[in-house]
Amino acid sequence: MLVDIRSDSLIEQYANGIRDFSSTILTGDSLCELLLNGINFEQANLARVNMSLTQLRGSNFRGANLSQGLLWRTDFTDANLEVANLSQSKLIRTTLKRARLKKALLAKADLRVADLQAADCPGANLAGADLRYADLTGINLKGANLSGADLTGATITGADLSSAILTGTILRQVDLSQVNLQDVDWNRRHIDVPANNSVLAVTD
Q: How far is Cα 126 from Cα 27, in angstroms, rounded to an integer?
């Protein structure tokens, strides 16, 4: 059963050492510019919450609803976001280094210039996501859905895209020479693949 909580009450309880806010509802409220490392928001409803510039390192958001959230420059380093809903969230310049995003929903999320180095995202849904100039070094996107996503200028060295869906994915200015592309599913009618397979660019 979900329990309603206000941001001022949550902040006060966190300051008093409480970390477990699982299955709570905090929709449309603000938790910006705070230090909330190690907090537990498992299965919480945080839709449309503003958590911009907040540190949430090592926190647990497994199964949480963060859809349409304002998460600009939020720090999710080492956080658990497995099966979380981040669809249509603003994650511009957000840090997701080593974050766990297995089967997370990030459809149409704005991840421009985000840091996803070594993030674990197998089976994640990034359809239509904006990943322009994001750092995807060493990311695990095995079996992920990147259809219609824009990866223009993204750094993707050492990434695993095996069995990923890349239908209509925009990969301009992207070096794929050190990326695992085994069994990738893409629509070649919309993608121009050079002979060396190092850079892919979507044709109009």
A: 23
Backbone angles phi, psi at 120, to 5 degrees: -105, 105
The CA distance from 147 to 170, in Å, is 9
CATH number of the domain within which 55 lies: 2.160.20.80
Domain count within the chain: 1
Mean pLDDT across the chain, nearest whole number? 91
The answer for 21, left when phi > 0, alpha when psi is -120 to 50, beta otherwise, is alpha
Q: What are the CA-CA distances from residue 11 to residues 19, 33, 62, 150 (Å)? A: 10, 12, 20, 36
Any long-range contacts for 43-52 (C-beta under 8 Å, 24+ apart)?
43/2, 44/2, 45/2
The model's pLDDT over 73-91, given as tens digits with 9 standing for 90+, comes to: 999 999 999 999 999 999 9
Token pair for residue 99? 């974050």
Q: Alpha-carbon distance 42 to 108, whole Å?
A: 22
